[in-house]
Design a protein that fits this description.
Distance between the termini: 97 Å
Helix content: 40-55%
Number of helices: 15
Strand content: 15-25%
Strand order of the largest sheet: 2-1-5-4-3
Largest sheet: 5 strands, antiparallel
Radius of gyration: 45 Å
CATH superfamily of the largest domain: Histidine kinase-like ATPase, C-terminal domain
CATH class of the largest domain: Alpha Beta
């Protein structure tokens, strides 16, 4: 509009200058200068309008488009210029807002997906077609021994040194097509000096990347090994007394009339091994009961005097035969507390039996029961002996079934069934507690059990 006005004004002034020139009032060159000046003004005004309505909006649109293509979707264009540029600006702003909203939703979805895969116990690893890691959950970061932020966008060959994992990627690279049947492999890796077993499912993605899911089979493998060891150990433990009884019986049958002394010796062997079998069967039954998923604790009032009376009648006489002093110490202020009497008796019997068995003549076994001094209503039960002790390399394994320290070290202590501490561990777990063993070789062992004691009202 301004350009039209300027053109009209310039044309009018030019006409006036020409008329004055014809009338002789103004020199022709002056009139021409005036007309040229006004034409220049008109030209500049036209340029200004073109820049304002066309060039400026076009540059703004070009710069905004360039920034948006670089990912700056928060940029907005000022809708100015003629109607066409205004319409383009409005549409571009609408497109940017929509894309920004889509990116925000995509980021939220990706964050939710990352939190989901992080919550899974199995390591999950994804790479692109170039072998760069694009996703790794928290368990995978532990497996790779790298923080997740450091592992992203890294080449898989640069951060993994485990040959079995790299071989899986090589197999996927060699697989034809963009996707096919997943590969199932069992691999073993070493971390922190321990060997871990994984079942890996590897799948080629549509963009020639790779997705790997690691399922930890270490616990299952250890459980299977424990079952195998249990069967082997149980067979060995049962075979020894049965073979001894058989030999003694065959010998007894031959000499029962002619050699009374030999007969007595055979009867003693048979009696000892029968007692051992009886003890083993009793421990197996106790172990089966305490580790049964169907076990329900029978919580009721427990008197420490009753627990100690049972020990005095059953185990103190055995200790006296070895000249071992059994000391019973009650630290509980009240006369009774709440727990499962049968489980407590099982725990005490096995711990005190072990203490007596592995304490030399003239030693001491001390039993202490009391409340844990933490303000919480919890009971501690500790059995301390002055026996032969346990070497450090055996401490972590003594709670396994049938595991026994080298019997040659025990001397006259003899052999137990190897089930006592396993029974103690499961009995304490059934009470919701924990067990800790501390031992010094040649000085003795202390086993401490702690477990909650429900209030009397809740046990009723």
């Amino acid at each position: 509009m301004l350009a039209v006005v300027c053109v009209a004004l310039a044309a009018g002034l030019a006409g006036v200058g020409c008329r004055l020139a014809r009338d002789g009032t103004l020199a022709p060159w002056a009139a021409a200068g005036i007309a040229g000046g006004f034409i220049a003004v008109v030209f500049l005004a036209a340029l200004y309008q073109i820049r304002r309505n066309w060039i400026g909006p076009a540059n703004q649109l070009a710069q905004a488009t360039l920034r948006m293509s670089g990912g700056e979707w928060e940029v907005r264009v000022d809708p100015r210029g003629n109607e066409m540029f205004q319409a383009l600006a409005v549409r571009l702003n609408s497109l940017a807002a929509h894309v920004q909203s889509q990116f925000a939703e995509l980021h939220k979805t990706r964050s939710d997906l990352q939190r989901l895969v992080d919550s899974l116990p199995d390591p999950i690893l994804a790479t692109d077609s170039a072998g760069r890691i694009i996703m790794a959950n928290a368990p995978a970061a532990v497996l790779l021994q790298l923080p997740p932020a450091q592992s992203l966008r890294q080449k898989i060959v640069a951060i993994i040194n485990d040959e079995p994992i790299l071989e899986l990627f090589d197999e996927l690279d060699a697989a034809p097509g963009s996707a096919g049947a997943p590969l199932h492999r069992e691999i073993r890796v070493v971390r922190r000096g321990q060997r871990f077993a994984y079942e890996v499912v590897a799948q080629r993605t549509a963009d020639r990347g790779a997705l790997l899911v690691f399922r930890d089979q270490s616990t299952l493998a250890a459980t299977g090994q424990m079952k195998t060891d249990f069967v082997a150990n149980a067979s060995h433990e049962l075979r020894t007394p049965i073979a001894a009884i058989k030999v003694a019986f065959e010998t007894l049958r031959e000499v029962i009339v002619d050699d009374r002394q030999q007969s007595e010796r055979c009867l003693t062997i048979i009696d000892g091994h029968l007692r051992r079998l009886e003890e083993m069967l009793r421990d197996l039954m106790d172990l089966s009961r305490v580790e049964s998923p169907s076990l329900r604790t029978q919580v009721g009032p427990v008197k420490v005097n009753d627990l100690f009376s049972l020990l005095r009648s059953t185990l103190v006489p055995v200790a006296r035969q070895k000249n071992i002093d059994v000391r019973l110490v009650d630290h509980t202020p009240p006369e009774q507390f709440q727990s499962d009497p049968w489980l407590l008796n099982v725990i005490l019997k096995n711990l005190v039996e072990n203490g007596i068995r592995f304490t030399p003549i003239g030693g001491t076994v001390t039993v202490e029961i009391g409340f844990v001094p933490t303000g919480l209503r919890a009971i501690f039960l500790a059995v301390t002996d002055t026996g032969i002790g346990i070497a450090k390399e055996h401490v972590d394994r003594v709670f396994e079934r049938f595991y026994q320290v080298d019997p040659s070290r025990s001397g006259s202590a003899g052999r137990g069934t190897g089930l006592g501490l396993a029974i103690v561990k499961h009995a304490v777990n059934a009470l919701g507690g924990a067990v800790k063993l501390e031992s010094t070789l040649g000085q003795g062992t202390t086993v401490t059990c702690t477990f909650p004691s429900p209030a009397a009202s809740s046990a009723a």
